[in-house]
Structures are given as structure tokens and as C-alpha cells.
Amino acid sequence: MPGPVTLGDEHKRPTVDPEIGLNWLGADTSASQPAGKTLANATPKVVKPPKRSGPKAQPDLVGYQQLQGKHPGDRYVRVVRQQSDDFQRVGPGHLVATEEATKARGGVGRAFGKVKRRVIGAPLSTAMAAHERLTKVKALAVLSSDALSSVAYATEEMLRILLLAGLSALTLSLPITGAIIVLIAVVGFSYRQTIKAYPHGGGAYLVSKDNLGVLPALTAGAALLLDYILTVAVSISSAVAAMVSAFPSLHSNRVLLGVGFVLLVTVVNLRGIRESGSIFSVPTYLFLFGILVMIAVGFVRNAVNGFAVHETQVEAMKTTAQSVTVFLVLRAFASGCSAMTGIEAISDGVPAFEKPEWKNARTTLTVMVSILIVLFAGISFLAHQYGSVPMDANNPGYQTVVSQIAKDVFGGTNAAYYYIQFATMAILVLAANTAYSDFPRLAYFLARDSYMPRQYTYRGDRLAYSTGILTLGILSAILIVIFKGETEKLIPLYAFGVFLSFTLSQTGMVQRWRRLKEEGWQHGMLINGFGAVCTFIVTIVVAVTKFTHGAWIVIVLIPVLVLCFKAIHRHYERAATELQAQTPLDPNEIKHTVIVPIAAINRVAKQTLAYARSISDNVTAIHITDD
């Protein structure tokens, strides 16, 4: 056997096929290799396949194509540029899709797109999401309109229950109002703790999931979703009632007006959170100004008369012969607690604030709770002093309690009276905007965790969660049609879900303080613990006193929704299992099996087998013959 071939020996250098060459196999046959190094013991190099020539993708969508000329030394580069209008260059290596890229290609699609842009506006880029934030002034209008507007019907619903025991029972409205005010302060202060602990948003679902587990979190999520739907239905129905009080001729069109208002608020919210905040700020502050002036004027006029209590218009109401019982008082308390709906909205919507988000959210929450206490106390006091009582909604001369107070305070149906009615109607319509802000966000969190369809995580053209907004609008409109737009029929369904989510959220915060033991944890646990006890008691009271009046519907729907959430989650888990790739994630666990078809034993076949063995140790050569 001949010895190893020395690369430095010109006479013994092996012949190299010029078309194949040993360099492709990793052996360097150049004469510059150090003398004495043989081909047998030469260090092999990593085998790389030849690079393909052709256009290469560039950040600016520019391709460079290397082309061979007629002669061996002739090469040139062709630059291929993107000619489409679908992208706009905003910087080196930074392209942004234009509006043209999102347009439909067909005629029908383009026509629909034009109508859509007329209604909800031109699409916004994702980069604009950071600018779709709310100042404290706008946030008070967008996220507090639900809580602040609830004073327009909370006192009336409380008086409606007390009136079942006769006129003498109406004197209990003031102590019940005092108890509700204490509860508002407790819950509001508790949610200040939640905002600080969860600066990126601390709704009942997230707090419960983080501290109590999946089942309590899904329960809180189901309760809140139902609460937001009822918020829209109750607020819109109350707005229509305020309009009917000023214009009794519209009484027969309550349902149609309610559905129309739902459509209006839905379209405005599809235009984006910042734009809806700008639109809704004015009516909210007009309402606050009007109601505060009405309370101030009414208080002064009543004080001048020695705080005399006016007689009630007996012919305008219906009374029964019930006696005053603890159950009746608790039922009135539960109805009055509808003034607390919407307190959690700011805690849910912390990400919608401008930076620093959690500090601005806490400030806004404090201002909202303070205003809510003043408005609720003032309206309840004036209703007691001026003898205002709830009326039957089917009465052709129906007027709300706020309408009766405004008429007595301002001396009839003058400009000030109509200002109050229109401002009340406007904020009640816009109060639904709080639900339109929080329902899509909660649906996003549930969908992100695979408990709702993934479509709820998608943003629309205006960076709003369009699927959640449309779902809320459709379901609330259906409720208004079913209950014929009568607020008193919707209220019993309202409070249970609210206080159940309050209880779970505060209980979750207690568990968080115990688990993390952060600075001031004992003080924080005491505050949230007291809030959890209070809201739990109210939850039981609402469930017992309003069960036969409609609360049973919500009590049944909550576990049904939880079961639906779990079913959706199982579906996504099965889908993820079926779509899971079989290839291991660890590169060391990947073993290749290489099969090499061979027509004949020659240099090319050996070369191919060498390359195959560089990839894997498991190489099989196959030769098929008919001999």
C-alpha cells in the first residue's frame, strides 16, 4: 500500500477533477498548506452547500440580483425595487403598510370600505396606540360616567321599594342613603389599593386569577360581563325615561329610542377610545354642573323655608298595605346600591390612562367617589324634602324623581328644568360608554387566556376591540327589547353581578397582601378585608331580596357562562395539542435519517455519501436495478 500523499510533493499530488474538486468536500489542496501536512490527517472544514444567486430580501424591499455576463469575468448587480403603493418608507429599513394595502380588491368590498370609513373613520396604525390614551379630565368622563349617572335612578329605585309600605316608610330613605354612602367610601378606598398593587390594570378577573385561582377568576369575569351588558341596558332605558319625562308624547316609542341610542354609542366607540373620550367629555361635565347647581339651589331654598318637608302628590303613585320589615329595608338598600355600579371601571381601565397610569387612575377614582357621594346624598335629600316619589312607568304622565325635583327647585318647566332633563338624558346615554370601555378589555383578557374566542383579541381599524364592542351593543339592545325599556324591570338583575365581582376582587387583594407581605401589608389587608366583608354581605342581601324579582336570571347565567368558558378553553387545548410540532425543541435531540439513491458507484456517488455522513451518522444508500 502506498504511504500517505504529502501535499508538498508536486509529483505525488492526487489528480483533482476540475468539475468537482476536493475543496467542496472540505479538503484544501492548495500549495500554501504547511509542508508535511498530509491529506489523510488534514482537518476537515464544515461542508456548506453552494450559495444560490438571485434576489435577496432587504429591509426596504429592495432586491440585489447578481448576474453573469457573456464572458467569465463579466458580472453585474441588478437592483430590484418595490413599485407597489402598499408600503411607505418612513426610515432606513422601516416600512409601514399604507391604507391602500388594507383596501378590498373587489368592487363590493371597496364600496363597503368607503361606507365604513365614513362611519368610524380612517384606519390608525398600531404605533398610534400609545397616543390613544386618556387624560384625567377625559378619563373622568369616559370611565366614571356609569357611576356618576347612576344617581339619576338609584334614589328612585330605593324609594320605589320603600313606597310599598306607604308614605311613612319614605323617612327611612335618609338613613339608608347614609349606609350606602359609607359603603361607597369603603369600596372606593379599597379599589385605590387595587390600583396601586396592579398598576397595569387590576380588574376583578385579573386579581382573582392572580390570587384565588381559575374558577373564582372565571366567576368574576362572567359576573362582570353580565354587569356591563346590564349597564348599557339600564343606562339607555333611564335616558329614554328622562326624555319621556320632558316630552310625554314619546312614551310609546321607548324601545325604538333605546335601540337607537345603543346604535349611536356603539358607532362612536368603534371610532376609538380617544375620540369617544373627546365626544363624551362635554355632556358629562354639563350634567355635573347642572345637578350640582340644582342641589345647591334646592338646599338653599329649602333652608330658607326652615327645611320644611313638602307633601307628596298622592294621586301620582300606587301604594300597597305592606308593613315596614327588615326584609323590606334590606331590599330598599339593595336597590339603592345600584348607585355603586361602575366604581370598578377605573381599576379595570388603568392602561387607558396617560403615564404615570396608576397615579392618574387613583386621583381620578378619588375625585369620582367624592362627586358620587355628593350627588347621591344631595338627590336623596332633595327627594325627601320635596316629596318626590317614583311613578309607574306606564303612566302617560310619567316623570322621574330627578324630573320632579328639578321642577320643584326651578319653579316649573322652564329652561333650567329642560337643561337638567337633557343633561341627564345625555349622560345616561353616554354612561353606557363605561361598559363599552371595559367589556371589550375584559373579553380581550379572557380570550388571551383561551376562555373566549380569539376574535376578541383583535383590534379594529381604529385600534378598538371591535368584536367586543359589537357584541355588547347587540346583547344590550336585545335586553332593551325584551324588557320593553323599563328600568325598574332591569334593576333587579343589575346589582348581584356587581357586588359578586367586588367581593372576589377584595378577597383576592387580601390573599395578595398575605402572600407577598409588602410594605404596609397589614394596613392594606385590613382595608381590603373590611371591603370584602361589606360587599359579601350586600351580595347575599341582593341575592335573597331580589331573587324572585329577576336576580335568579343572573345567578343562573353566571355558572352557565363559566361552563362555556371552560368548554372554549378545552377546545383550544385540544387544537394546540393537535397542532403541536413533533420536532423536538432541543437541537441535540434531533437525529436525521438520510437516504441516498445511487445509480452507480462513482466519484459523484462517493461525494454525495460523504456529504450525507457530514449531516448524520444514520445514512442508507439505495440502489435499484432490474438485473
Shape: elongated
Tell me the total number of β-strands.
6
Mean of pLDDT: 81
Low-pLDDT windows of residues: 1-40
* Beta-strand share of residues: 5-15%
Helix and strand element order: EEEEHHHHHHHHHHHHHHHHHHEHE
Helix content: 55-70%
Q: Evaluate the radius of gyration.
A: 36 Å
Helical element count? 19
Question: Strand arrangement, largest sheet?
Answer: 1-2
- Structural class, by secondary structure, is mainly alpha
| Largest beta-sheet details | 2 strands, antiparallel
End-to-end CA span: 34 Å
Give a structural overview:
With 627 residues, this protein is mainly α. Helices cover 58% and strands 5% of the residues. The protein is built from 19 helices and 6 strands. The strands form 3 sheets. It has a two-stranded antiparallel ribbon. A two-stranded antiparallel sheet has the order 3-4. A two-stranded parallel ribbon has the order 5-6. β5 (593-597), α19 (603-615) and β6 (618-622) form a beta-alpha-beta unit. α5 (173-197) crosses α10 (326-336) and α16 runs antiparallel to α17.
